[in-house]
Amino acid sequence: MNDIVVAAEKSIYIKMEPVLKFLDELAHALSKDVFSRVGLVIFSSYAFPILDLTYNYYKLCEVYKAVRPLKGVPEPALGIYEAIDMIKSLDDGLADKRAVALIASLSKKPGISLVDAVNYAKAQQVRLAIATTNADAPSWLPEDIVKELVRLRSDNIYKIIKLITNGS
Predict the structure, then answer these.
(1) What is the spatial distance between Cα 61 and Cα 26, in angstroms, rounded to a whole number?
(2) All domains of the chain, ordered by start, with CATH?
(3) Please, what is the Cα angle at 11 between 127 and 125, to 5 degrees?
(4) How many CA atoms lie within 13 A of 107 on its CB side?
């Protein structure tokens, strides 16, 4: 069983179409595994849980679309922290795998350390996949994170889904 939280940026910098395609494909993939739960955290300059862990996978797109773009410089680290907090606070003891999928533009350098958030995820034993809607990795992003970064395109969505559901 998986507990998966998607931390998705909702700002003027994010490209919506790849995010919606990812959420739709994730819902479809999870519908084949009746024992997985999914949650959604929306972030920009702040983060908040918008959909607690649920078996209702198809709510992801609907809920994401309903939120207006948020103001400010996106802080992906806040999305990670909030997603892990959701996993920890709603832990029912049944999940053997816990994962966060961070979907971010990474177009602006955040003020909060993304490296610290990545290390926190590792310390909490939460698998983390980071995807960006931009074609190029930003120059401010550390090389060890760039190596793991996936460019979110329609032809590699299943790669990200596999990372968070299977861990390989």
Answers:
(1) 10
(2) 2-165 (3.40.50.410)
(3) 10
(4) 16
